[in-house]
Structure formats: C-alpha cells, structure tokens
Amino acid sequence: MSFLSILTGSFSTPAADNPTVAVMEAAYRHSGLDARYLNCEVAPEGLADAVRGARAMGWAGFNCSIPHKVAVIEHLDGLAESARIIGAVNCVVIDGGVMTGENTDGQGFVSALRTMRDPAGARVCVLGAGGAARAIVVETALAGATHVTVLARRASEAKTLADLVRTHTPASADAVQLAPPAAVPAGTDILVNATQAGLYPDVEGMVDLDLETLVGVDLVADVVPNPPQTRLLREAHDLGCRTLDGLGMLVAQAAVNMELWTGIAADRPVMRQALEEALRI
Question: Is domain 6-102+248-278 annotated with CATH 3.30.360.10?
Fold first, then answer.
C-alpha cells in the first residue's frame, strides 16, 4: 500500500475562479486513482520557482493558464508538435523529470466538436486572435478543415494566425478585420467564438455580427463555459444553426490532460456533471 499520491495542478493568476479542480478530482475519484489536482495562485515572478517545485516534488504534470502559457516555455525541456506550432502551452507532462509542453486547448475543442461534426472538409471561421483562437485554428486545420478564416479586431494578429495555418498545415487561410457589424463569410460551415464575449458576468455580451449572415452555417460553437448558453448560441439556434457550448471543450481538454498525466482515459460524463455542479448550472 502506498501513501504517495499522484500530484497534478494548475498555475495561474487569478486562480480562484478556475473550476478545473472540481472536474479533475471528480475524474480521479471515479477512476479510483490516488491523485490530487491543486489549483495554485502563481504570479509571473513566481512561475520559474513553481515549475522547479513541480519537478522537484515529482508531479505528474500541471496546467498553465493566464498569463503563463507562453512564458512557461523557456522553463521546459521540449514541446509537442501542436504546442510548437501554436507557440503556447497549457499542459505540461513530467515523465522521469523531463518536462514536455502540450497544448490541449485546441485538442479539447476538436474532440468536443467531433461529437457533433468532424472538421475534416469544413470551412471554419474563428472569431478572435488570442490564445484560444490560436489553438483552435491550428488544431482544426490539422484535423482536416480545408479553409480557416480568422475574423478579429486586430488585423495584424489575425494575419499572423492565418499565416500560421498556411505555413504549418495543409489548409488554406485568410484574415479579415472585424468591422461591426461583421459578416460571417459565405460558405462557412463552422463558426467558433474564441473570444470572451458573453462570459459571466457580461452574459449578454456578443461579438457584433450581422446575424443574418449566420443563416446557412451548420454549426456555431462557443468557447465560453459560463453561461453555457451564451447569447451567440441562442441567436444562432433561433436562426436554424446547430450549437456547441463551451462546457464540452473544457471537459474534453481536461480529459486529454488526465490521459497524458496518468495513461487512464477519463469518464467525460462524470467530468461534465462535476463541472455543471461546480458552476451551479
């Protein structure tokens, strides 16, 4: 009998509103693992010490959230392919003291997306050019999307993401500056909101779109987990689009993390239930 737990966790600031701890510990309990997930408040100036501490204490791995996804890279031993292309890390795997950076944001999104539609052969439009958008455009392109449009307020950042897709994946891509009310490009199959518009407490927030241009879009997805039914998803549903909420991405991402750290597949319905209870949905 061993009294030594598997240790995992998250380094971010602010950390208090991160529900991942509830999701991960529910999954660990359900799988019968003696494992813990510690939600840690880590300021930028403390990141190097936190990473060294995780290695020294034999952690299996940890998540990095805002503002550490890029800064953590210099403290690691290597990067997985998607993390290298994306240029950001949200999951670190520690194996034999060797730290490898992964990016499971995009992997989680694609996994959740596939419950409704395979991105292969699709034309995808992503709203935003931040970290979530960066992961999503790369992973959907690697998953077989034929074309990706990046629609964002900052034209230079949108162009950077489109160039990333063209350089590192088989997909074509273009960048469009978001000038409200923005039109969703004709022929779009999947629209993804990768901004924080609509995130609690601004529950009625939404990217300023010409809603009529949503007609004909097959699937509208939102990365915002709280509330799960954002205004964008409600508007899209009323216009005949299928919708995918942000809880699926968060759960799928956490499930990928668990498998990377423990080698055990997570029970996603259990994780989803824990997330809904944590958010009081």
Answer: no
Angle of helix 131-142 relative to helix 104-113, nearest 10 degrees, comes to 60
Cβ partners under 8 Å of residue 20, min gap 6? 10, 37, 39, 63, 250, 254
Altogether, the residues listed in the chain come to a count of 281
- The yes/no answer on whether domain 107-244 falls in CATH 3.40.50.720 is yes
Asked if pLDDT for residue 281 goes beyond 80, the answer is: no
Provide the pLDDT for residue 2.
85
Is 120:266 a contact under the CB 8 Å cutoff? no
Q: Is the pLDDT of residue 63 over 90?
A: yes
| Model confidence, pTM | 0.88
* Complete edge-to-edge strand list for the sheet that includes strand 242-244: 172-177, 147-152, 123-127, 190-193, 219-222, 242-244
Q: Considering 68, 69, 147, 159, which one is annotated as catalytic?
A: 69
Dihedral over Cα of 38, 196, 254, 163: its sign: negative
Catalytic residue list contains 159: no
